[in-house]
């Protein structure tokens, strides 16, 4: 069980969906950063269940408790611990699946791994776990914002077959993204996306989607080749989010169909430094940020917990018909937007500290 | 600079393309595993430059030297060190790019990171670095084969717009894959792929492609949620390979267009355990292997070093026309097949040891 | 700030003496271990302030809260989080030292490190931090007890110039140690030790001491050369305890005065395995446990916070006379006994899991 | 098997005493540091066997090979690999102990751990392994010297019952220490120490000793509480050296006999910063360096391999008389002086980088 992510800006999380709560410890946040609940709560609210008609009915206020590491509104340089109480857990919802591993959920694999079953089936394989990521990510973002002016904005770039179009990646903001409840950043396609989600819900089904993300003002030089390249850590971070199935940096899989002459990002002079004319690299070359916006996408599968009857077998191999009772989102991606942003912030903050470590001599 | 990958089965690599050689240390390989050069050399040969007309002319024999950790053909449990001498380095090829960062290569970012330039421009951002991965991966594979019977086979599933079809993932073998020099595993499409690569070469250009991989006989229970999920470590490993731009597990990005009822893998009884009827999960659920084959794909961009003239700027921002002289592959993917297999083996071996660690009580 | 210890059995702690509380997360405890508050609270009570006349008057009930990782009395294999609320913090006690770094305390160095000062002066450099160690150690001990029958017992082997004598290391138990409030395990010397402590207290002063520890039934084979030798990890663990100044394994510094022929532990047959006649090795040879009892000692300095007036300077370098008002122990060692036991348990549990990891092939 | 030490300035070593050689990789050394063989060889020569009549007759030139990471005399920021060929291995010396675990050596424990025996008995438990430490330590020292002016000097403070006296810790240099072959730094006691060693050798026996070390100009602020305190990492590093049995920081075990009023280091103004009048703290308070010299001692046991006949048992438990034939030092401490310096350099370099990581905001 690895509950720790990062090398210097390191987060450690704990908690099951039916334990007393979910918590997260952030190590390595530099001292003297101004952090209050007001820096953390907004992203938690964007992740919160029950925020609008597209989300699960599980109702958790998800108010952040700061347990340590901050005094008089400033980080001490010591571990910052956040805790989120579980209030609306309904263990009874899980009674009917006590002996049935839900298809494409973690019930079966957790049992094979640990030899024991938790009340909620899949132990920590619950969307509730992601509250810890969002809490810690908000701290990372505040550090990155104060130290470098980094801005991180994610949006829903597709739901099912509906795609968002024409997003202004150099200027898009969270408030722009939040103009529609589906968080597509593209009002034109939003209604179609919402419609797609509503259709899935009515069918007691779920639907997948894609989230794209831009990180602006990331300084050049971040990334630790050859194994901890910036895109490798981003891929690690994103694929650790529940339901994530794919990751692309910059041109991604489309690059596989291109010629080098078409794909290469030509250098140009931008003020006192070099930049690139195009950004197929997604802001990363050779595993190291080049100063251009970092651009990536994450594909999410449809939520496996659905109300429709599924033919499957129980733990003993007997045929059963399963209709899940647990509360769930018909489409996870609108709520996953702040999770993607949080994980991106954790990766960049960690790489920033790692880069700071050795540069005293250089400069 | 992170040259270390893994938690228990841990590899550490070193060496630039113009240093005395490339080396790799493998920690944590259990004692008593039978390993000789014959277990390592075949994969090195598949990665070797100059092996056929599709690859760069750089000619390196790439014979493995075992420096430590093995006596009388058995691992001692101590670190196994492998070393590969560099013979055919041609620093003169790099003279004309001393002051010009190659577009979409690592010259610019290495300079921004380290404040110093290596002879070869991009320091360790060289395809030559991957020999270390293949050497260490062969050791991991031998362990996985002896301990669990794991089989790992990758192939080129696309080059440019040409796709391989109808691959038998439950039985495909390396010798089958190697029937064509493009390693597509699909003789029908191979000629078209080779043709696509030859066209790129003639145009002094390069072309991208996709590699797919299957890992069979991986026991259920491997993966360390919530941050070191099996697919997250695979994504990390794959995106750390030079030129990799995207990663998909199982249904990948296609899942984003699906409904849950369509995507969920229904459980069925398979002998004395449970399996799934379909495998959209790609063998991993909730971050933990479920016993089905692990399936994933990696997208690679076209090699950035091309002979065609590119308009760009030098480090001072002056306009220049650049025609690279370094030897390079017109398409990296046929040689990247053993690299993908190696990185998969490193991830699975590490997760296997992590799972072994705590199971004494369970069983 | 490193708040994490261990590789597989890993603990992460947080909290200042004046934050909402102190917490600790234990990762990697195998699933299925029976753990309840009753396994944890006794050691916390032995560490608790205010337990008898030898200790500080700070009064904390130190009741453990289990926040996650345990259901129905069994570990799930997921992170186990413990939390201890701070109740009796008295920030006013620290007002007079706001501008004065206490001699031999951490006030000055924390300020130099972080550039910021916490309410309590030294941030996490508080004896209160050790409650996290004791909580996590109790979990490690339960695992070691169930898996291997390991027994860990520490005692106060000296206070000032008074030494405990003739301890039966093969049979000494915690209840035997607790027969006197000074925890010397030697009733004869206990009165003299207590007397020494009372004299220090009356002089508004403090006094140092030594704790010795035996770990019985540790299986042979634990320890990870060449850098994570068993004694190296024990030394690391022990010197991380506040006020610890020295560590010895087995014969320790006395070995420096001995000849090899005198010091070597001759092997003898003990039932179906080999043992040693003497135990100068302290149960560890070449960094690996040999099956004999592990024996070590830890030297502790006198508490730096004393009521006697000390001539020193403030942060600006002005001469001042300082008489500390904070509540403190005249001698830390009786309360440090469970801390030493806890840290030993964490080291051994971690090494046990690391050894389990690779042994499937061997056996 | 842990062959890695450090978090950011990280070393990884490999090699048995009878493999092709011993190697070490240094990660995280900042780029642009001037390093040549001339920076590394002198410390290797001080560690080299056969350097004078006090040492083993095994004759190894121990010339350093730099395999990677340095171009034109400057570090690239990439891994620096060093390799030392084994030339004078004599496997025949080990034939008579094939079935006999040498008392207090690692033969028995390596076998219990790995289930396999290396030619040389104890695998990596050979003094030869320490050449890797000295090589990597020289790189760390060069970095510390260039970045901070750090000076690290160790000496033999006792052999058997003979103690060195009156060492000027504020000014002692390596050339001063090397004035006698016993490296006591105190010419008066040197003859007695040498005499003690010669007596042990003549008796086909060995003798222990103590090494003390001072690290000057270490900046205040290094150390990562609560688990990676500076003294905890030093203790870890020192106890990982073969034959080390004890570690003391500053006043060490003597502090256990002192009162707080006697032990506390009173602060005084020293130029523009604070210092302490005494240095019982050994330069570290609360786990963090305070700017005063770091002072510590390490106790070493007598070499276990002795020529005298020892009564013991073989692996099957049969009584045998053993007279070791392997070449060995009668007293390890003179050659261990550069090893202690190297390990201190590795710890301080790592802590320096960790401290640099987060300070951009502070200053």
Written account of the structure:
4 copies of one chain form a homotetramer. With 363 residues, the first copy, chain A, is an alpha+beta fold. The first copy, chain A, has helices at 37-47, 107-114, 130-148, 174-177, 187-202, 230-239, 260-263, 333-357; strands spanning 4-5, 10-14, 21-27, 65-68, 70-71, 74-75, 80-85, 151-159, 162-163, 209-216, 244-249, 267-270, 273-276, 284-285, 288-289, 294-300, 310-313, 319-322. Chain A has a single domain (4-357), classed as 4-Layer Sandwich (Chorismate synthase, AroC fold), CATH 3.60.150.10. Chain A contains 8 helices and 18 strands. In chain A, strand 8 and strand 9 form a beta hairpin. In chain A, helix 3 packs across helix 8 and helix 6 (230-239) packs antiparallel against helix 8 (333-357). Chains in contact: A-B, A-C, A-D, B-C, B-D, C-D. At the A-B interface, strand 1, helix 2, helix 6, strand 11 and helix 7 of A face strand 1, helix 2, helix 6, strand 11 and helix 7 of B.
Keywords, separated by commas or semicolons:
five-stranded antiparallel β-sheet, 18 strands, homotetramer
Summarize the structure.
With 363 residues, the first copy, chain A, is an alpha+beta fold. In chain A, 27% of the residues lie in helices and 22% in strands.
